[in-house]
Amino acid sequence: MYKVDLNCDLGESFGAYTIGMDDKVIPFITSANVACGYHASDPVVMAKTVVMAKKAGVAIGAHPGFPDLADVI
Question: For site-directed labelling of 30, which of 18, 21, 22, 56 has its Cα 20 to 30 A away?
Fold first, then answer.
């Protein structure tokens, strides 16, 4: 039997900015790339995302980014 890994980039909110609906998406995926800062996320969001994913049995990977946020703020 074939299996499909349904993957999603998550944890892209930061500070006062909420981006995406991670809590609504997590029940439907099997793995998540958690944003690791620079252009998205912060330590609090990263931790919350990992906890939500672990509770749902979702595999976790890192989604590093370029420091391009500084160019737009």
Answer: 18
Q: What distance in Å separates the CA atoms of residue 38 and residue 52, rounded to the nearest whole number?
A: 21
Report the distance separating Cα 65 and Cα 11, nearest Å.
Answer: 12
Helices of type H across 1-73? 22-25, 43-55
Instruction: Quick: pLDDT tens for 5-38.
Output: 999 999 999 888 899 999 999 999 999 999 987 7
3-state helix, strand, coil in the chain (%, to 5): 30, 20, 45
DSSP helix/strand/coil, 46:
helix
The strands making up 7-10's β-sheet, listed across from edge to edge, are 7-10, 31-35, 59-63
